[in-house]
Amino acid sequence: MPVIAEMVRNSGLSAEWKRIEILASCLLESRADREPPEALIQQLRDSQHQVEFLRREPSNWDQVAIQDLPELAKDILASVYATVVNPSVVLMFQDLQQSNGIHPTLAFLHRLLALNEQEYQTAQQLTDRQGLLVKRGLLLVEGEGPMLTLKPHPAALPTITGLPQQRLFIPGAVQITLDAGWDDLIIPSSQGKMLKEYLHWIHYADQVVNEWGGREPGGPIALFSGPSGTGKTFAASVIANELGWSLYRVDLGSLISKYIGETEKNLNALFDAVQGQKILLQFDEVDAIMGKRGEVKDARDRYANMEVSHLLSRIELHQGPCILTTNLRKHIDQAFQRRFHFVVTFPRPEVKERLALWQRLIPPQAPISDDVDLALVAEAVALSGGEIRNAANHAAIMAAAQQKPISLQHITVGVWRVLQKSEGQTRPNQLRQLAHYLPKEIISAELT
């Protein structure tokens, strides 16, 4: 017995996958109206004993950081993750479910694991979108009711199976990676204080709920409002970097569908994919769907309101931070704004902030001409942070192309190009004190 126990102890979770394979083989025999052969029944008995022994040992599920789970939860996880590590299970599940699907549904697990009525209800609770296995980021779920499909979560694969981590696919979202820290964020101090309070909600909400008996606050949900280029995405990146989490920008346009029911399905897939993960979600230009509601005239109007309600409901239920951004806060319905935990306004920078931005965004190792007066530049033209970044980059590239230090003329041309982009027809007097440094060839070529 000690030798067998040692072999079992060193087998990791392979006994779990083998047990699922044997259960599927038995179910195939039953599907063909045949009694499973005695040899197969004996394999199942031996496999059950191995699994029971392993589950009493700390070297099993506990070693893969999945602790304090009920036995049925482990059965469900074994059934789902066996499709990743055992090819035989994949083929049998595909045959048994008759839908070419390799991932088990709840209805299929009901038969595979021979669940009684109470166990099936427990399985439903464990795999609900707010259930234990989904909230911990161990499963992805699709669909509803008995046909709810259970899939391995890519982020949990290395821990459970030992396989390399798959790139996390978030439907309708792309990862944003910016090297951004607090010192790089040039905004008024009051806004900076609110961003740090937002971080406190993420760090200390569990203590308030679990130790102090507070109510679950959800989120937190923040609305960042302000013109383009004022630092909304940059601030979100600072928060994500401070947390050590990934930032994903959600494209609502790719999730909203003209087909009834598709929008809800897409939103569910998005939130299911990030459940339990260290991910900060950023929803851009939410004023497009959260505008002030007019009179409901037809079914499409009613459905549009339902889409927004479903989005807000999923955001509120999501146990993770979300940031919504808008350039047009006044267009957002007040009923929606009341559901945000924070509303942070990002104003266009004043002279002091503009000077700090110019000082930070001019490449630090670049040679600088003696005529450069960044205080003059900051005073002359009221650019946003994003516009200053573009102007500084343009100036640096032009200087590098000429193999010269960055001069006030280079910076003036960079500002001019930014103004042309944002305002179309541009006149030198818009440069104010910088107009003197705009090259005459540009004036003669572009304004005549």
Characterise the protein shown here.
The chain folds into three domains: 2-161, no CATH class; 173-345, 3-Layer(aba) Sandwich (Rossmann fold); 351-446, Helicase, Ruva Protein, domain 3 (Orthogonal Bundle). 52% of the residues lie in helices and 8% in strands. It contains 20 helices and eight strands. The strands form two sheets. The chain has a six-stranded mixed beta sheet, covered by helices on one side. Strand 1 and strand 2 (149-152) form a beta hairpin. Helix 2 (14-31) packs antiparallel against helix 3 and helix 13 (262-274) packs parallel to helix 14 (299-317). The chain starts with a helix and ends with a helix. Residues 1-11 and 293-303 have low confidence and may be disordered.
Task: Summarize the structure in short.
The protein has 448 residues and is an alpha/beta fold.
Uncertain segments of ≥5 residues (pLDDT<50)?
Answer: 1-11, 293-303
Tally of contiguous helical segments: 20
The tally of beta strands, per DSSP, is 8
The CATH homologous superfamily of the largest domain: P-loop containing nucleotide triphosphate hydrolases
CATH structural class of the largest domain: Alpha Beta
- Helix-residue proportion: 40-55%
CATH topology of the largest domain: Rossmann fold
Shape: elongated
**Strand order across the biggest sheet?**
3-5-6-7-4-8
Q: Can you summarize the main beta sheet?
A: 6 strands, mixed
- From the N-terminal CA to the C-terminal CA, the straight-line distance is 96 Å
CATH architecture of the largest domain: 3-Layer(aba) Sandwich
Radius of gyration from the CA trace?
Answer: 29 Å
- Structural class, from secondary structure content? alpha/beta
How many domains in all?
3
Tell me what portion of residues adopts beta-strand conformation.
5-15%
Mean pLDDT, nearest integer?
Answer: 82
Order of secondary-structure elements: HHHHHHHHEEHEHEHEHHEHEHEHHHHH
